[in-house]
Amino acid sequence: MANTTDRIHKKGGSASQKSLSTSQRTLFLFGRENFIIMLAGLAVLVIGYLLMVGGGSPDPTKFDAKEVYSFRRITLAPIVLVLGLLIEIYAIMKKPRQGEPGEGSQQQ
Asked: Which residues lie within the region annotated Disordered (predicted)?
């Protein structure tokens, strides 16, 4: 036991430092490609919410049904939102490539 600790100290590091360097490679659950896909899904979600914005009127006593119940707000925006959610689900479920850094499996 003492012989092992002597060898570690002579090499200039402790056992805990060496185990930290190997565990730092496995901190991320997702790979780089997964994060890129997640950002794309987030962008699609933001576009969907932006399509829903609006419908205001300069006169608060008037109700403009054509503006509020337009194709863009009632049909297009929810479809874009569902598409964004499906992209996010795909990004979460996709397995990272074996050689990709930051993947969940340990590399030694």
From this structure: 1-21
